[in-house]
Write a structure and sequence with these properties.
By secondary structure, the protein is an alpha/beta fold. The protein folds into 2 domains: 83 residues, Urease, subunit C, domain 1 (Roll); 260 residues, TIM Barrel (Alpha-Beta Barrel), CATH 3.20.20. Helices cover 24% and strands 32% of the residues. It is built from 11 helices and 18 strands. Strands 1, 2, 3, 4, 5, 16, 17 and 18 form an 8-stranded mixed beta sheet that branches. Strand 6, helix 1 and strand 7 form a beta-alpha-beta unit. The longest helix has 13 residues.
Length: 383
């Protein structure tokens, strides 16, 4: 007998190239079978007719409490939006990660993390910016941390905004990448309002490094003369990954719309949610809202779901257990109902004079989330 049987939905599994009406059977916390017409021999049978069934989503960029003081209550927010794995994008440094691990170990949500090169991570926010002076990087402590928790850690993080790095310019980035080389780690770099040209920032990055907030419009951007720059395209060709993670103000229609028209899509999708941006209209809100926004902007549906399922799973080295509905993988499943309704998308919060708005015609309404075979969220309308 199956543990859970999800019936009659349209299964969209980009990692396996599947988009068809089918049933998903779960046993012992793993995907047991995916096909049409599975018999109803299950403890829990859930009919999701008219809904989209996908692998549990991976939010590759958020800030999770208590890893960050401004972190979101991750299980509540993530499970309610179809997210079953979240990556904390550098809330902790080498001095603060260990003391917060007990929370992660107790969470049903899978939580991975980038480690900030600032030893205390983002603990000083929002009162003051973090210390990114390379002379204060503790390479030895960072090395020890990755040796101890390598399977739970994703790489190094640096925010290289001009207001953070000051007169140091790109030297913190240069030294972070050098440390990544020494330890064999990828680097995620926050690029909003860089201290120089975007082309120079991209020149430091290596295959597998992540440039996040790719569609921001503050300072130098990925556009040159209104088109995607040669530097951005060359960085992608050599294996640099581009991530959209929007938060309250790390996204702009001004940069995104021409980029999408040229087919310059993200490689990874995150929300950059914190307690300051979760459920904030009309910006990031949650992952389901992000999916609807990028669909409205013209990215194909299968591509959008790949950006938060199989693509990050491969990048994180967990594709053998997450990011797809492959038989034997962890039973992480999300179900959405695509509902027609007018919805407002924005690139800044309401009240910001720079806010631009767009009006979409549908949302992805989260209906069901299953984590390791356990139903962790279910909309009351789903009988």
């Amino acid at each position: 007998m199956y543990q859970v049987l999800i019936k009659n939905g349209t299964v969209l599994d980009p990692g396996n190239g599947l988009c068809a009406v089918a049933d998903v059977a779960i046993s012992d916390g793993r995907i047991a079978e995916v096909r049409a017409g599975i018999g109803e021999n299950a403890t829990h049978v859930i009919d999701v007719r008219g809904c989209l069934v996908t692998p549990g989503l991976i939010d590759h960029h958020a800030h999770v409490w208590p890893l960050g003081k401004i972190g979101l209550p991750a299980e509540a927010v993530c499970f309610a939006s179809g997210v079953t794995t979240v990556v904390d994008a550098g809330s902790c440094g080498c001095e603060t990660y260990r003391r917060n691990r007990p929370f992660i170990e107790q969470s049903k949500l899978t939580v991975k993390a980038y480690i900030h090169v600032c030893s205390t991570g983002l603990d000083s926010l929002p009162e003051k910016m973090e210390d990114v002076n390379p002379e204060h990087f503790d390479a030895g402590a960072i090395k020890e941390l990755f040796e101890e928790y390598r399977t739970d850690l994703s790489g190094l993080k640096l925010r290289t905004s001009a207001e953070i790095v000051g007169a140091s310019g790109y030297e913190p980035l240069r030294q972070t990448v050098a440390l990544g080389d020494k330890l064999g780690l990828p680097v995620m770099v926050h690029c909003t309002n860089p201290p120089g040209e975007m082309s120079e920032l991209l020149s430091f990055l290596r295959p597998g490094d992540v440039m996040t907030h790719m569609y921001m419009n503050k300072g130098s951007t990925i556009l040159d003369g209104g088109r995607v720059s040669r530097a951005a395209r060359e960085a992608r060709r050599r294996g640099v990954l581009f991530e959209a993670a929007d938060a309250r103000a790390h996204f702009s229609f001004e940069v995104c719309e021409p980029s999408v028209r040229e087919g310059f899509y993200p490689d990874l999708l995150g929300t950059d949610l914190t307690k300051l941006s979760m459920y904030l209209r009309p910006t990031a809100f949650n992952m389901a809202n992000q999916l609807a926004k990028y669909a409205f902007l013209g990215i194909p549906e299968e591509t959008i779901f790949a950006l938060c399922t199989c693509s990050p799973a491969r990048q994180m080295g967990i594709a053998d257990r997450a990011g797809s509905l492959t038989v034997g993988c962890d039973a992480d499943v999300a179900v959405f109902r695509k509902e027609e309704q007018e919805v407002t998308f924005g690139d800044r919060p309401y009240g910001d004079p720079a806010c631009q708005l767009r009006t979409g015609s549908f949302i992805y309404r989260p209906m069901l989330t299953v984590k390791n075979g356990e139903v962790v969220f279910r909309d009351a309308a789903l009988f």
